[in-house]
Specification:
The complex is a heterodimer.
Chain A: H1 10-59, H2 61-65, H3 69-77, E1 85-92, E2 97-102, E3 124-133, E4 136-146, H4 148-200, H5 214-254, H6 265-282, E5 286-293, H7 296-303, H8 305-322, E6 328-333, E7 336-342, H9 347-362, E8 365-366, E9 371-372, E10 376-383, H10 390-406, E11 412-414, H11 417-439, E12 442-451, E13 457-468, E14 472-474, H12 476-486, H13 489-511, E15 516-521, H14 523-527, H15 531-542, E16 549-554, H16 555-560, H17 562-575, E17 578-584, H18 591-596, E18 601-604, H19 606-610, H20 616-631, E19 635-639, H21 644-652, E20 657-659, H22 669-677
Parallel strand pairs in A: 10-11, 13-15, 15-16, 16-17, 17-18, 18-19, 19-20
Antiparallel strand pairs in A: 1-2, 1-4, 3-4, 5-7, 5-10, 6-7, 8-9, 12-13, 12-20, 13-14
Chain B: H1 6-15, H2 27-40, E1 42-43, E2 52-57, H3 62-68, E3 74-75, E4 78-85, E5 95-100, H4 108-115, E6 121-124, E7 136-141, E8 144-150, H5 151-156, E9 160-161, H6 163-168, E10 171-173
Parallel strand pairs in B: 2-4, 2-5, 5-6, 6-7, 8-10
Antiparallel strand pairs in B: 1-9, 3-4, 7-8
Helix pairs in contact in B: 2-3
The chains are: A alpha/beta, B alpha/beta.
Chain lengths: ~675, ~170
């Protein structure tokens, strides 16, 4: 049987350990005491017998010398005092027997000569001593002693010690047992409770008792732990139930948009993937329409989200009605919708669908107290022509949609590979533009603004230019939208305004010319909270007289967030800064707002000026704008003036200031400075 | 505590066998051996020094003859010198042991008186020597040589005898 200590119960281990340690200690002590006793006893008796023997040897010397055995025998008889001595003999120098002694205990024929041994446990002790007279050895004495009685005493002591050992071990066990109940039993209870809990998962069980010692702490910690597990178990049960309910709910919600009830992005992607898979197998064509409402943000911002949601709900219902049952309309989020058209029958069919969708959206929406008319930009991409999988098909349709947006919104565009090139170019421009700011590749050109009454230069428009070592000369039309999208416009705008202001100040200081400097402000730039503070700080910094700065805002910029714009414009006006409405006439400026806006100038868009004198319509618009500015007592400026006819027409119609190639192209700072020095005066008669 | 081998005793036994020879030797030899052995149990006063002079008084008899053989032997680390002292002109000066021969039985008193000046042990085989003022008298009982001691005489001469010797004496006069 292999005895394994560690498999024993704790109880037995403790007992065994105690027994072993105390047993070994007691036994060791016992052995040492025994050996000590035996040795001491023996030594004592032996030394006594040695002394007696020596005395006998001395006292019997004369008897031996004078050959008197009787006297020697008398001397030997004195050994009676030591009862252990059994026998003694005196021999002369010839080793012949001379005298002897026998204790009453031994028989007379006891032969001393036959006893010749001496070992530790031997009860017979043999001692001899020379008999010397006057340095002559004349014989010797031999004494035999029986130490059995001494050994008997030792045996008694062994017995007593053995009994003491057993008693002490028993007492040790008894005491240990008491301690065991204090140590092992609680631990065993912990173990058995843990086992029981593991078996029946009943976490309401606890270990009873427990003091403040480590075992007590163990029990308390164990109970606490079980309590926490029980707690957690209950909470887990609750949570599980709750989660199951939630999952059921989520399952319903997972695939459908809550607002419109249309499939959501998730379901859309699944469906599209499946559709494309099927199409690939059957050799079908699939079209994806990406529909994005135009200016939906304006609706949300100005009329509130509730209204925006209502609009989305109604429009989504209309979209769903436009298509066949097999075609799927989804809402990807916000104002983005998609339509999957399975089994496409050609481009003409798709155009019809696009028209149908656009018409459905364009239809007036009547809400409680407001009528809304929405438009959408639609991008269309085809599988397998424009994409190889669902992801790229969505991207292509998205790209086409953005292209539609850039084409003035409210139209639809089929995806073409060129769009991707365009998108790539945007990326290239973006990466270079970031570095351009750091490398000072951006600079300003100035286009003179001429007073049509005097022919003198009264102002200049600061125009941003970028000469990139890698991309060549970049027009603002190309890189400003990129800057606006990426947020770099903020930095670029600051650069433009600061450079322009510094230049204007320099003209004042160095040339003595007070030239009005017009700076274009982008929507993002103007939308920044601290815009007004920035401008104020800039003016302080450059020291430019306030009236020489003119900020040009586009119509869309003003209309984007009318309330905010109004506040800012008023603040700017309070500062004394001039404001000009750029590209006036291209958007749909509200006359009401225009009246409220404290702007100082209207800028006639060059697209209208260009039509002079061929287009009567354009001429009418220009005339109308000029009249409007006169009515509102605003300054008017026409840009894009390229011919003398145009200049004459504008002057005749009361336009106050003109700007364009007819007078001067945008020129570098040196050129315009030279122009100013020369006091240039333009004529158009 | 085991003793030396018995061969050791045998050797010593042969060397020192003479003083305790068996009783078959003639009486004179035994008595001479007694006298020699007495010298070993006597303590002389410290002024007595030099060789151990054994002085013989009287006409030659068997004992005195046997004593001559002690010449040159050692006792208590000293050589024994045997000297015959002339009855009339001889001096007892330097004698440590004075053995009185049987021929001097009539003159004991004079001899002992003379010897009292000396710290000398007086021994004789003359009957009742110890009663007559001699120190040790050799007697024979049942063919066995024994001795008598006059302890007072020993004390008077400033000598000391071993207690063992006193114990062995057949008779001690105190």
């Amino acid at each position: 049987m292999i005895f394994r200590f560690r498999d024993l119960p704790l109880n037995s281990k403790l007992n065994l350990a105690l027994l072993l340690s105390s047993g070994v200690a007691v036994t060791l002590l016992f052995m040492l005491m025994l050996m000590n006793t035996v040795y001491n006893l023996r030594q004592e008796v032996v030394s006594q017998i040695l002394i007696l023997t020596e005395v006998t040897a001395t006292n019997s010397a004369a008897a031996l010398v004078f050959n008197d055995p009787k006297s020697a025998t008398d001397t030997l008889a004195a050994l009676r005092v030591k009862p252990e001595i059994m026998a003694a003999e005196i021999y002369n120098s010839s080793n012949q027997h001379f005298a002897s002694y026998r204790s009453p205990k031994v028989s007379a024929d006891f032969k001393v000569e036959e006893v010749n041994r001496d070992y530790f446990w031997d009860p017979i002790l043999s001692v001899s001593h020379f008999i010397v007279v006057d340095k002559e050895l004349i014989g010797h004495v031999r004494v035999l002693a029986d130490l059995s009685s001494q050994l008997a005493i030792v045996a008694n002591q062994i017995l007593a010690l053995g009994i003491a050992t057993i008693i002490s071990l028993a007492v040790t066990l008894l005491i240990a047992n008491r301690f065991r109940t204090m140590i092992a039993v609680p631990i065993e209870q912990v173990a058995s409770t843990a086992k029981a809990i593991a078996q029946d998962q009943d976490y309401s069980r606890r270990v009873p008792g427990g003091g403040s010692d480590e075992v007590g702490q163990l029990i308390a910690a164990f109970n606490h732990m079980v309590g926490q597990i029980e707690d957690r178990e209950l909470r887990l049960k609750d949570e599980l139930q709750h989660r199951q309910l939630t999952e059921q709910k989520l399952e319903k919600l997972a695939h459908y948009d809550t607002l419109t009830g249309l499939p959501n992005r998730h379901l859309f992607q699944q469906t599209l993937t499946l559709t494309l898979e099927r199409a690939r197998n059957l050799g079908n064509k699939v079209a994806l329409f990406f529909v994005d409402l135009d200016n939906f943000k304006v609706v949300n911002d100005s009329l509130g989200h509730a209204t925006g949601d209502m609009l989305l709900k109604i429009l989504s219902q209309r979209l769903a009605k436009c298509v066949r049952g097999s075609d799927i309309v989804s809402r990807l989020g916000g104002d983005e919708f998609t339509v999957i058209i399975d089994q496409v029958n050609g481009t003409e069919h798709l155009r019809q669908i696009a028209d149908k969708l656009a018409a459905a959206i364009a239809q007036t929406v009547e809400l409680k107290d407001i009528e809304l008319q929405a438009t959408a930009s639609i991008g269309i991409a085809l599988f397998p022509g424009d994409a190889t999988d669902a992801g790229s098909l969505v991207r292509s349709a998205d790209t086409a949609m953005y292209f539609a947006k850039s084409r003035g919104r409210a139209n639809y565009q089929f995806f073409s590979a060129k769009m991707n090139e365009r998108a790539n170019r945007r990326l290239i421009i973006e990466s270079h533009l970031r570095r351009a700011i750091e490398k000072n590749e951006l600079f300003l050109m100035y286009q003179p603004q001429v007073d049509l009454a005097t022919g003198r230069v009264v102002g200049a428009e600061a125009l941003l230019r970028w000469t990139s070592p890698e991309l060549g000369t970049m027009g603002p039309v190309e890189f400003i939208p990129v800057a606006e999208e990426t947020g770099m416009i903020q930095q670029i705008g600051d650069f433009v305004m600061e450079s322009a202001c510094r230049q204007a100040k320099r003209w004042v200081d160095e040339e003595g010319v007070s030239l009005r400097i017009a700076v274009n402000v982008s929507v993002r730039q103007f939308g920044a909270k601290q815009f007004v503070d920035n401008v104020r700080a800039l003016l302080d910094r450059t020291g430019l007289p306030v009236e020489l700065l003119e900020l040009e805002l586009t119509e869309s910029c003003i209309m984007d967030n009318v309330e905010d714009t109004l506040i800012k414009i008023r603040k700017l006006r309070e500062l004394g800064i001039r404001l000009s409405v750029d590209d006036f006439g291209t958007g749909y400026s509200s006359m009401t707002y225009l009246k409220q806006l404290p702007v100082s100038q209207l800028k006639v868009d060059q697209s209208f000026v260009r039509g002079i004198p061929e287009s009567g319509e354009d001429m009418e618009i220009v005339r109308a704008v000029l009249h409007l500015s006169q009515g509102l007592k605003l300054e008017s400026l026409a840009e894009g003036v390229e011919t003398v006819e145009q200049a004459r027409f504008l002057a005749r119609e009361g336009c106050m200031i003109a700007q364009g190639y007819y007078f001067s192209r945008p020129v570098p700072v040196d050129e315009i400075t030279a122009l100013l020095r020369g006091r240039q005066r333009y004529t158009w008669q | 505590m085991r003793f030396l081998p018995s061969i050791f005793f045998a050797l010593f036994g042969l060397l020192f066998a003479l003083p305790i020879m068996a009783m078959e030797q003639d009486e004179a030899a035994v008595k001479a051996a007694f006298v020699y052995n007495f010298t070993k149990f006597v303590e002389w006063p410290s002024e007595a020094s030099g060789p151990l002079q054994l002085c013989l008084l009287g006409n030659t008899d068997p004992l005195l003859a046997a004593l001559l053989k002690l010449e040159g032997k050692q006792s208590q680390g000293q050589n024994i010198q045997v000297r015959s002292v002339d009855r009339d002109a001889g001096s007892l000066g330097g004698c440590r042991v004075i053995v009185v021969g049987t021929s001097e039985a009539e003159r004991i008193a004079a001899i002992l008186n003379n010897s009292q000046k000396q710290p000398a042990l007086t021994v004789s085989e003359i009957d009742h020597f110890a009663d007559a003022g001699g120190m040790i008298g050799l007697v024979v009982n049942n063919a066995k040589v024994q001795f008598e001691i006059d302890a007072q005489a020993v004390q008077r001469a400033n000598l000391k005898l071993s207690a063992q010797l006193l114990k062995l004496a057949q008779k001690v006069k105190k």
